[in-house]
Amino acid sequence: MLAAACTSGSPAPGAGTATGTTSTPADSTAPPSPANSSPTATTPATPAATFPLAVVTGLTNLKANVSVAELRDLAGKGTLVVPCGVKLTAPDLPAPPASSACVPADKIAAALVAGQQRIALLPPGLVQPATKVLSIRGKGPFGMFGPDLFGDEQARAMDYPVKATTAPGGTSLDASWTAYDPSQVWTMTNLGSLCSDRGAATQVVSRGRGWDWVFEGGTARYAAPAVVDPPDHEPYRSVQPVDTGNAGATPQIIKRSDVAIADHECPVVPDSTWKPQLGTTAVFSVPEAVLPRWRDTLGLDVVYLAANHMSDKGVAGIESTLRLIDKYKIPRTGLGRDLDEAIEPAYVQVAGLKVGFVAVNDVAGVARADADTAGVPWITERNIREGVRRAKAAGADLVICNPQWWGGAEYHDDLWPTQKRQLGWFDKAGCDQVIGSGTHVAGPLLVRGPAADPNVVLVSPGNYLFGQGWWQETQEGVILDLSFRGKTLVNVRLRPTVMIRQARPALLDPQGDGRYVLQRMWKYSTTPPAR
């Protein structure tokens, strides 16, 4: 045992069920101490009880899961970082070399920040955004869908194989470090631009594949090596995705999450009046037929609609969008018959919390909502403040703000000065997390403090389904996967995707062809220091 503007042209140049066994606080009727309460190693520990250990690595490590066999191998080599004061009860790992020393549990996050490729065992109460959780390897593609302390509800309910107890006579562990209550853990996934016209419409109408083919994507690889950081000047190189099967795996990532949200960018019209965009004109819409797929296949809980194509079909298109989405009972925000409706937040209930969503836009080409004009709310300090105020007045415990923003131009991977100023407005208004969209390329990701209440800013996840096949950056995107403990953000994961035939989102192996979009994102992103 171990002890221890969305065109087909080119971008401008320059541009809750318990899992396993858990620790139990001395007073079982009281909630566990918060993980962000700055514990110290001298705090008296709860008498030894079995608790799970999360398997964690650095945030930028491309690795997404780990097998028990890998843990055994790492332990035998002495490269598995193990917390002091812990005695493993499962699995049975080989004793480390004599030269291998344990690391104080509250110092492991700092060790991973310094060495992003290292893998560690960590008491669950110390998991934070600087320590990306690795799920236990499952039977899904790329090892997905295995046990995961901070994964979706199904993953949390699986028998978790890594367990420990406090080592007799060892360093005391704070009770909050070992506490784990799966009923307080929840996940949220976010999709990139979702408008299944153009490429998807071509496959459905001209090729006769049907909407199920579009929305039930599986996995993909590239026919040839690609480019990690494609240049923002001609020639714009594209990739050739090859469908590798596993149909339905991509929507399962979204549907299995506790909360799934998406950026929808174009009007929804009745099936009988829909005319697909099969050419290059940048006027888009989708039929009502996509809405059952949003609800049942993707499992969307909220759509945010403050996007620059929402008035492509005029006021009638705005009204049909609102009417049809409401018909399928999918909460929405960011579009209305006037500003009062457009700025009204959407809400979901999860893990005993009420989460509010506020959407705004700054991209030209769409009707700007006002007192008597249908359209989308603009990114102004006043509109942001009012949307957040309404959410909090309605009892929202968390407010997620969803801007569609360019900062001056499309197709850039970095954060521009205008966006930095707008981000200041979001912070001042009280947005807890900012998840943006609109540039049609992925990145950057900013994981920020304060340490006790970390937050994330994703400027854009790129395209999920938007029919832009002329450039590698617009073909690729990421599914943002966030995990919370109550109101506190504790884990950030990115799941890379690519559009097959500009129409069918498919998952990429993050350590294979998914590395291109992930490594490109990290170029301009900021990662958090250890708490």
UniProtKB/TrEMBL annotation:
Biased composition (Low complexity): 7-45
Residue ranges of domain Capsule synthesis protein CapA in the record: 233-468
Pfam families: PGA_cap
Residue span of region Disordered: 1-45
Top-level division of the source organism's lineage: Bacteria
InterPro entries in the cross-refs: Capsule_synth_CapA, CW_Biosynth-Accessory, Metallo-depent_PP-like
Annotated family: Belongs to the CapA family.
UniProt protein name: Capsule synthesis protein CapA domain-containing protein
Organism: Terrabacter tumescens
